[in-house]
Amino acid sequence: MLPTANDPTRNPNPLPPDGSFRGGRLPAALAESYVGVDEKKATDWVEFARRLSAELNFVNGDNLVAGDWSPFYEKQPAVAAARLIAWPVERLGQRLAEHRELIEDRQGTIPVEQLLDSLFDLLSSAVVSLDQLTDRLAPGTPLRERAEALIEHQLAPAFRRWLAYHRAAAPVYFAALGADQVPEYLRDAYAAGGGLIATQDVIDGNVPLKSRWTAGLNWSDYLAETGTDDVVYGAPPTLAGAEEQILHAVGHLFFHGIYEAFVSATLHLRAAAQTEWMRLQNSPDNAPHLALLLAFL
Questions:
Q1: What are 247-296's pLDDT values in tens digits?
Q2: Less CB within 10 Å around the terminal CB: N or C of the chain?
Q3: What is the pTM assigned to this prediction?
Q4: Can you state the angle between helices 42-53 and 289-296, rounded to 10 degrees?
Q5: How far apart are CA 171 and CA 175, in angstroms?
Q6: Torsions phi, psi for 58 (to 5 deg)
Q7: What are the backbone dihedrals phi and psi of residue 65, each rounded to the nearest 5 degrees, phi first?
Q8: Residues 151-172, buried b or exposed e (16+ Cβ, 10 A)?
């Protein structure tokens, strides 16, 4: 075999391949696929359709309005997976951090008691949303089992402490909050996964959680075991010391570590939902979620 240098079939002066020189490398922004006509993913459309279904009246056989179409739509496993994927958890983390920043801003005009109450409610609302969403995931699937384990072993113990901190603060800080001055953007229902729930309503049992949050205890026994905990405030809460005590709390690892852990865990769960979404798309028994909506529009 002839050496390459003497091979008559080889071009001794080949043209360099495309991209060898700077002028031959096109910017990524010039690629046809760089910007889509509509950049929504399939899961975004499913989430859009889920939210739209709640705005459409369901008319029963007697020609009377009986709720909306969301119960027919949300029971689909693919819709639950898509909702988890579309949950703007990063925005939830941002809103929680913004509460803390405003509390730490000693020049602010919003009462710190109101900001603390709003901070409690935002995370409690996210917990309720995750609980309801987990219940809609298909039983026996890896995503459902992962969500159940995550709640039982990580989030439920943390939320128990969250409620204990709230119960220690509520009689003093939240008894007379006055006119609400918390900006609407902080009360971000969509970032919390749905509607906003008052932490006190959860404590009072008006918004029930599944037993995975209570280790199987009934609610009254669970609250009795939870008790109150004022450790994050540095001292028993008092009106006179509210500003310093609340500032101490939001900077306490035991306190902000709870909502940071929730955001982190939910992000991992959202990644697992991607795998479940793909499994459902390839499953022959997966319901045509978009066709269901289009059928009645």
A1: 999 989 888 889 888 988 888 898 889 888 888 877 776 665 555 555 44
A2: N
A3: 0.78
A4: 40
A5: 5
A6: -100, 125
A7: -70, 125
A8: beeebbebbbbbbbbbbbbbeb
